[in-house]
């Protein structure tokens, strides 16, 4: 059950305001005053993090999850499509983020399309905001979450956990509200996006804005076609960013799919001698289902927020940005991830240590790429569970520095800092 | 001076034929009967490999390079745009491929748009072929080149040198005409494309075919707009593939470009708070100039040929495909190249050695990415020069296996096969 809470007038970092910011969220478990864990979703994720039983409803407009989007946005965006709980293997009763122990809160970020205020949601005149919605930043997300938690009666958080751009959101908590959070788990993330990923995001946005159906962002209404071609292209590009070269090769190789395996591909006469490959079919299938669950303008807004995020902004460095944080930090990275690299997580952990934040950089050997944090609960769960329980001293929490004292080289990390970092050369330099 | 030669009826591997295949080519230096070097261009390259003085014209339609395209294609494709000689630092008098010593031939591949038969060139009815042009393969390129060399009186080649898909073209010579070439230099290439690159090529093609101006491939004629948005997107994607993460970061970082630095970007209201970054400006600028020099259908055709190429096709393995080749092979790879990786070049070299082809795998430490073979003549020139002169025993030719016997670890390679290959983990696994 998704609830929607109005948190009143909200001024965004860009300087623009909305009179009534609405936030869609879900909570799991019971609040005991000291056990709140905020989970931050990734780019196209939603508040629906788990299929675990929800908490008792608060004083908010409780709406059924499968209707939340339609009811709230007035558009055809099928938020029902978000029904898949995106971290169900990690969050729930008895799971790593144990909802019998913690009060878990997950909020759909402003600018998204799962019931919170954003481009496809109804604006002051009842019509969808479209691109009149204020540009959003990760900082806006953090401030909006703070506002919602106030309404829920949550002061200090036990922990903030987030993956990918949700990990930036988690880092932003340590920077913006350093007294409000005890433990920050930044999963598959970085202090900022690198140039290569900025480029691919810009290309993805361009795919949307050059789709004639995008129409300057004004495509809502039953009689207008959505910019599905552009959004599908953006998703294909994103999808490649989420997978590793190795995992793509292992999964699909160069195999041909059956002709017409995915029927909607535009006719291309140059196809007549060449195969439609399984990997293309896979990307097409996923892009197609993505267009039925996500809004093109929201994709523009949220990638902008991700691109713009820079932990050091307003400070001289990442370290200074974290200097006021008195909690502990876990940076969890994956060797096959080229979207957010091990090297970036190492730099983040080093910055935190520079200002005496107790920090562990836990490296998971994986060739699943960026997706690893979603598809390898067996790797992600134990360190998260123990970090929530015992901080950086948690039993399953490994810091890559620990490896220096190990002669057998076993363990889940790729090597100590004195060794050539195996994946610093993911892209060399 | 580009010449255009008709090589008569040509049956493509797909089974379709054209009555009169025309090939645009350039030659440099004088032919002494035993000194011919065929240089194979990359995806969007042309026959114009060097600004060196051209050979005496042969019995062919000699046309001025700057007009070749317009005259021959009947379209607005500005083949004048190819005027930049793409390997001028490597090919010319006194350069690595020395045109005072070798007779250098470079042929625009069928399917391309620089004067050879292809989609934008005039078909039997004088109208551009468009997508009625037969799908082409790398094997077709090789066979067409063989036909042209026959006309030029060249029997056995001293060497074939090619980079990127031009390197596949070079490998195809060793497989298809094993007696016709003494030395094959395969630069920044592989026996086949990997799944990740297949995906990105498919996404690039989709950008073209979903551009409404593509119009099923029928966009020629002064009154029709070209699918420039789609072709520009394809080029942006390609451009990211050609650069390394490290070089992009070093060159551009996250810096903002001046507003309006490139004026043609479509208005995106979500821009209003966010910078237009230097890297985006760079990609836009290059994509824009690309659309004025290349044809969208040719891009579809040539990426298809690249994707489809598989050295082992028709044989049980890469090694068997090379078994009849009695010459020598140089595989030249670059540590920062994730389009064609060091690991792929190593596998290629191993396959050649398996069938007793004298082979060197020369690894260049570079973070320039795939572009390294074009922008680092100082790295590429010496091994190429000495390989052409003395084969794998050439002085500047280093095989990565040599490193095993060196204690100081110096040299241009990344490590011997017994060490963990530094860039096998470019994408781990």
UniProtKB/TrEMBL annotation, chains A, B:
The gene is metX. Homodimer. Pfam families: Abhydrolase_1. This is Homoserine O-acetyltransferase. Belongs to the AB hydrolase superfamily. MetX family. Pathway: Amino-acid biosynthesis; L-methionine biosynthesis via de novo pathway; O-acetyl-L-homoserine from L-homoserine: step 1/1. Residues 86-377 form the AB hydrolase-1 domain. GO terms for molecular function: homoserine O-acetyltransferase activity. GO terms for cellular component: cytoplasm. Residues 49-79, 398-429 are annotated as: Disordered.
